[in-house]
């Protein structure tokens, strides 16, 4: 997950901004669907 997205998600969770959390979550799934199976983020498999 890109660092800018992590930072925005943490900020949204701290503010309890449900609209922003949902928007960022949708962005993450859209980003992952565009990456394809061969370029999966390896930091999530730790």
Automatic annotation (TrEMBL):
Tell me which InterPro entries the record gives: CmpA
Pfam families annotated for this entry? spore_CmpA (PF26301)
Q: Which domain of life is it from?
A: Bacteria
> What's the protein here called?
Cortex morphogenetic protein CmpA
Species whose genome carries this gene:
Paenibacillus harenae
Taxon lineage: Bacteria, Bacillati, Bacillota, Bacilli, Bacillales
